[in-house]
Every structure is written in structure tokens, then in C-alpha cells.
Amino acid sequence: MGCGRVGASLAEAMERRGHTVSVIDRDPTAFKRLSPEFAGTTTVGMGFDREVLTRAGIEKADAFAAVTPPQGRLALLDPFLASEVAYAALDRSRVKGTSRSRILTDLVSLVRFAMQQDNELVPYPERVAANFAAWLAASANAGRQFTPEQQHWLQMIRDHIAANLGINIDDFEYAPFNTEGGLGRVHQLFGERLPQVIEELNRELVA
Questions:
Q1: CB under 8 Å to 122, separation ≥6 — which residues?
Q2: What is the DSSP secondary structure assignment for residue 37, as one 8-state letter?
Q3: DSSP state of 33
Q4: Is the previous residue joined to 28 through a cis bond, with omega within 30 degrees of 0?
Q5: Segments of the chain assigned E as strands
Q6: Which three-class secondary structure state does DSSP give residue 60?
Q7: Which of 9, 67, 90, 96 is most exposed by smallest CB count within 10 Å?
Q8: In this structure, what DSSP letter does residue 93 have?
């Protein structure tokens, strides 16, 4: 939703990566920002109107991005949440293709590039891995050491953030963490430092 400079750049970048893209904007002249080669669809209307979302194909969407003024601010939503905001219901069995979490992480990298926050387009998992390595190095320089088992858990947390944009305490009750002791084990390993570690990783890895 939104076909300003950032929205148009994001739409074309997603299409180049093989995604089918539908763009919504209330101003029909905004679509002139799209290149003649753009093969996606355009829909005129308010992006949180149920009828507009339906015409744009929200029922088949894997992800929904709202890119709005000022300065092309971005909100990434699960299409089901976007539909609930507009009081539209979706059948989850109709969602297919790449996982929505991976598409959302792709969108993060694409929009950072479109907004010129990054000089090159780096896949989000690679950015998280690089930030994780930098965080480990900074921790070592500050005198913080981690045991091999703690490092293994930190790597699992890194991979979870790369796939889901973040982590919270409840996530340790699910795979892959629950197969290795879950919340109880991670508390044993990190103790009172656990909230600080989670906060730092959520902040530093997505920077």
C-alpha cells in the first residue's frame, strides 16, 4: 500500500525477485512512478478498505507492506492482520509459496535499500549473521565469555531472529528450543542475564 518513491521502488524490487506484486494507492497518478516494465497490478483506493484489499488480491497475499508518508515509513503486516483491520476474512489454506516470515525479512532488506539506508542489497539473514558476529566480538572485548552450550543457544536465537524479525521469551517453548530443554534450560544457562541478552540481540541483530 502506497506508491510514493519508496513504495514504487519496493514494488519493483520485489517483482524482480520473482514475487507477484499488487500496489494500492488512493491517487491514480501515483502509479506513474512505476516503470513501464512493471507487470504487477494497481488498485485505486484506501489501503485498509475491505473492498479495496479484496480487489487487490489480499486473499492470495503472503505479505502486506504499508509504505506511507512522511519519508516513506514502512509497516510490515501479516495479510491476515491487514484483513482483520479491514474486517476481511481469509482462508489460511489458500496461502501458498514462500513462507510469510521469509517474505517479510526480504522486505526489510529491500526497503532499507530503497530508502538508501544501505548502499547495497544484502539478504536479511546475512545481515543478521554479520551483526551477530560483531555482537560476539564486542562482547568478548567487554570481557563477556560464553560457554560452548551458551554459544549454541545464541546461534539458535540468531537463526530465529533471521527468520522471524525478533524473539521473545515465549518462543523458547517452541521448536527448535523445546527439543533442547526450552525455557527452563535457557534460564539455567543465562540466569538473570537472559532478559538483557534477548534485548541486546533483538536490537543489535536487526540494526
A1: 109, 130
A2: T
A3: G
A4: no
A5: 22-25, 41-44, 64-68, 73-77
A6: helix
A7: 96
A8: G
Q: In whole numbers, what is the pLDDT of the chain averaged over residues? A: 78
Cell of 89: 476474512
Q: How far apart are CA 118 and CA 106, in angstroms?
A: 14
Give the span between the Cα atoms of 92 and 52, in whole angstroms: 20
User: Which of 123, 128, 129 is closest to 103 using CA atoms?
Assistant: 123
One-letter amino acid of 207: A
> Quick one: cell of 151?
554459544
Residue of 102, 91, 86, 81 whose CA lies nearest to 19: 102
Q: Which three cell numbers stand for residue 107?
A: 522486505
- Cis upstream peptide for 69 (omega within 30°): no
Give pTM, 2 decimals.
0.53
- Residue 118's SS3 state is coil
Q: To the nearest whole percent, how much of the chain has pLDDT over 70?
A: 72
Asked if omega into 176 is within 30° of 0 (cis), the reply is yes
Sole residue written with cell 486473499:
59
SS3 (DSSP) at 73? strand
Interatomic CA distance for residues 198 and 201, integer angstroms: 5
User: Which is nearest to 23 in space by CA: 98, 84, 14?
Assistant: 14
